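ok so I'm stuck.
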Amino acid sequence: MSFAFGPVTSPAAPVKSAGGTSHPLAIIARWAPAFGWLLLALLLAVPVFGSSRYLVYLGTLIALQAALATSLNIVIGYAGQFAMSHAAFYGFGAYASALLVTSFGLDFWIAVPVAMVMAAAVAAFIGYPALRYTGGVHLALITFAFGELARLVAANWHTVTGGPMGMRVAYAPSPLFGFEFSTARGLYWLAVGMLLVTLAVVFCIQRSRFGRALVAVREDETLASFLGINVMGHKLAAYVLSSMLAAMVGTAYAPVMSFISPDLLNAHETISLIGVLILGGVGTIAGPIIGTLVFFGIPELLRMARLYRLVILGAVIVLVVLFMPQGIAGLIKQRLERWKRGAGRAAGARSSQDAKQP
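replied:
not stuck anymore, here's the structure
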């Protein structure tokens, strides 16, 4: 069965009538978000019920990347600030948690919030002067410089980070609520938990007054300030929150990979995440997940080399910008809204015809 995207005027079309019959396109559009969450749950369950260890490993990496892209979506998608330090805070969380566990003897579940608070302090220290006096392109340059500085420090501080040879991580998160995280499936659920936390944060932001204020700042900072919104405060809060979540995801990276290197802080990783957002849809909940599946999941399943993956990403981004500037998730959202409007117009036309009949 195929559905038209415009108004449906066929007498057989089940539009909204006095009897309460709903147009099928309106039903699809109404239940699309629930279907999306159900599809996400099914995708998350595939590695668990499958027998392939590689599938579990791949699902773990995709979950971490999706969580990282979702956290970046807060500052870029909702606040409209082009920050280039996301990979640096991702690596900061990995290094900080590993050092807290191995050198200071903290439990992993205590090291996670400690690393997040440390990342928040660094983000506030970097973000306040960048957003208070400059912002815009200057924020991108300052955060890029900070990311490169952090990478160089990690590559040259041999006694703490292991230098360019990296740092071995030989620990697993302790059991929590009776759940074991020392196995491959346990680490997979750890990565999924990080993804669900970032999705919950973004979900709450999108439906909160804070989220609406971020969108207002993104669209027009001058108008937002006239409306009484603390523009700099909201931008800084978005940057700090995004950096904290990146550090949180980084704490899971250390036990999953059992190895940390300065390459984790490379600005190329942030650029790849921005490409994922553009591909999936900036400023949407589903966009980072869709972009991650397309950019990381499909090429990995096809066993494509990293070089070809970057080439394909570049080509896909060009096509998306030309033909789908709102991304895949944005295009789906636009089409669903068109279905709703079309169903509403069809229902109105049908009601008018019924009223004219004797």
